[in-house]
Design a protein that fits this description.
By secondary structure, the chain is mainly α. It has a single domain, classed as Fumarate Reductase Iron-sulfur Protein, Chain B, domain 2 (Orthogonal Bundle). Helices cover 52% and strands 0% of the residues.
Length: 120
């Protein structure tokens, strides 16, 4: 397990607060939803921009943070001109600073195999 420095923990919390502040401005109107490629494919509210806003405000963004393609379609449609992709990037950076593995990464696959007792 990777030891996380106190500075990284603080920076991660600050980044999450900044991302939360962006998503808190979202009125959850849903105008962005139909443009989101992740939502179009997965048909799951949680992976769309409005779902990200709801999940981040509930501090459970790590479940969906990597489903965003950062295409900025939601930003172009947003009536409040909220920069959601910036917030997603901040949340991802916080995720990594906290020592969490990026879903689907080689490191995660190796770690998952080790936990199951499989050799890489």
């Amino acid at each position: 397990m990777v030891k996380i420095s106190e500075q990284d923990k603080i920076e991660a919390e600050n980044l999450l607060e900044e991302a939360s502040a962006v998503f808190d401005n979202c009125t959850k109107c849903g105008m962005c939803k139909d443009l989101c490629p992740s939502f179009k494919v997965l048909k799951d509210e949680a992976v769309g921009p409005r779902g990200h806003a709801i999940m981040l405000s509930d501090k459970i963004i790590d479940k969906v943070i990597y489903t965003c393609t950062l295409c900025q379609a939601c930003e172009r449609k947003c009536p409040l001109n909220i920069k959601l992709c910036d917030a997603v990037l901040k949340a991802r950076e916080a995720f990594v600073l906290k020592g969490r593995k990026i879903p689907g990464s080689e490191e995660e696959k190796v770690s998952g195999n080790e936990e199951k007792g499989l050799k890489s």
